[in-house]
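Phosphate-specific transport system accessory protein PhoU (Yoonia phaeophyticola), 235 aa
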Amino acid sequence: MNEHISSAYDRDLEGITTLIVQMGGLVEEAILKAAKSLADRDVELADEVRAADKTIDQLEVQINEEAARTIALRAPVSKDLRSVLTVLRLAASLERIGDYAKNIAKRTSVLVEMSPVNGSDAALRRMAREVQAMLKDVLDAYIRGDVALAEDVRQRDQEVDQMYNALFREFLTFMMEDPRQITACMHLHFMAKNIERMGDLTTNMAEQIIYLVTGEMPDEARPKEDRTAYVSDLS
């Protein structure tokens, strides 16, 4: 890429990076607000999360358009092309995380009509805070090209899985002890699963950043602790 085109490419990528950071900030906010709306049984806040998802979706469309334009005009190769493809994948993951936050907000609107399940709201909020912190770090890792921080985020997904396992076990116990809580526990379980999937997507983003910087995906299989497919192991 000659110097003139390289300079234009750098400006394009800087603009797209700004959009990614903006989108990431909105998604972080959606995660925290969705968890708070559940803890406070705040329907208005839940509605705010659902409405804000449209802005997140619009940003993904804008990023896709800008990335396509950059590829068409600058014809990047090697790491430059990898950079553009990475932002497309990061934007897709952020859009899905935003969808999960919106799903939590939808279920909150249903749960306000039901009695709280002992301790579950606080546990879900802690889980959501952990995922939001991972997302913040992965965005920092992207901006700084920090492989060590991206790898740290990748390893922390185990903690989210362990939180999910514990909640899954608690919900099973609550439902067995009091069938009247089955409906509420099912909604809460799906919320916990939404947050666990947010952690997986954030880990995907960390792996994409490692690939962007090093040119190679992490060698070791991703550490996973979700054991809910083997319910007997959770006792």
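Helices lie at 3-40, 43-74, 78-111, 120-144, 147-177, 182-214. The mean pLDDT is 92. ok done for today
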